[in-house]
Amino acid sequence: MTLFELYKKTADELSFGGCGEFEAKVIFEDILNVGTKPYDYATVEAAENQILLMNEIIERRKSNEPLQYIVGRWDFYGFEFKVGEGVLIPRPETENLVEYVLNEIKNIKNPIVFDLCSGSGCIGLTIAKLRPDATVYLFEKEDKAFNYLNKNLGCFSLKNAVPVKCDIFNFDFSDLPEADLIISNPPYIKSDEVPLLQEEVKKEPVSALDGGKDGLDFYRCIASRWIKKAKKDGLIAMECGDGQSDEIISLFKSIVCEKKVIFDFNNIDRIVAFRI
Question: Which of 13, 68, 174, 222 has the fewest CB atoms inside 10 Å of its own CB, making it the most exposed?
Fold first, then answer.
């Protein structure tokens, strides 16, 4: 079997998700280091270990293991983040949240940033990378996710990012400075809807998906506890699920001066932001 034939076999086997060609290219480039044009290898015989590896990967994908976990890394906002079992996979819609807050704090010197429910650190570390004058605190509870957060921090070699392992519902933040920005992509799926998610999504940690009975537990925590650590005129910006913005606004309406809802390219209310 040539490498090209192995590539075509992989693309055909993975076509069940409608992205067989894309996934085959990612796997060949990132795992086999063959490159993005496997057809250049039409006369190159595939090694036995390459065939065995691809067969193993195909079976893992057919069992709904996310491609991102298999590759072990994924791009977010132009940077590469290590990911794997136990950490939420960075998603394109979350890049909109980062873009929004970077613009909102562009005129603030030496901003203090809190990234709640950091996971891989993709939000907070991206901000720390692009705003070297900022001090970014990244809060994460789960062991596996915190491990990936620290791995990514090490890859970025940032000195202005501070990982904090804690449960945001009971963490004593009295020693922390007030924040110019509190940002979060918290769990926001209703508990009874988690079992109904796509099988691939259910491979991601439930703790990063389940937002409680109505999906709003973490927003309540931010509204009741963390808002106290925001500076006057500070910004709170959070990702949310489809149709949740009105309920989230109701949680904050008595304690904020301004509110804003940003819709994504599918016209879904994806970001809710408040000024204190």
Answer: 174
